Amino acid sequence: MLEDFAAIAGIELAVIGADTRLSTFKQDLRSNEVYYHLAKGFRA
């Protein structure tokens, strides 16, 4: 339900599960932040 809400609202949802590793999770968040900043600049 939260994933659907995030998609409708246009926001990012970070899901932490039992198999989530902290270092990978942090890197994924940093990578996503870079992507979203760059994607804003490329839109017409």
How would you characterize the overall build of this protein?
The protein has 44 residues and is mainly alpha-helical. The protein has 2 helices and no strands.
SSE diagram, text form:
Blueprint: H1 2-9, H2 22-42
- Contiguous uncertain segments of 5+ residues: none
Work out the radius of gyration. 13 Å
Number of helices: 2
Sheet having the most strands: none
Which bin fits the share of residues in helices? 55-70%
Mean pLDDT: 88
Q: Strand fraction band? A: under 5%
| Oligomeric nature of the chains | single chain
Key features of this structure:
flat, single chain, 44 residues, mainly alpha
Task: Produce a short descriptive summary.
The protein has 44 residues and is mostly helical. The protein has two helices and no strands. The longest helix has 21 residues, at 22-42.
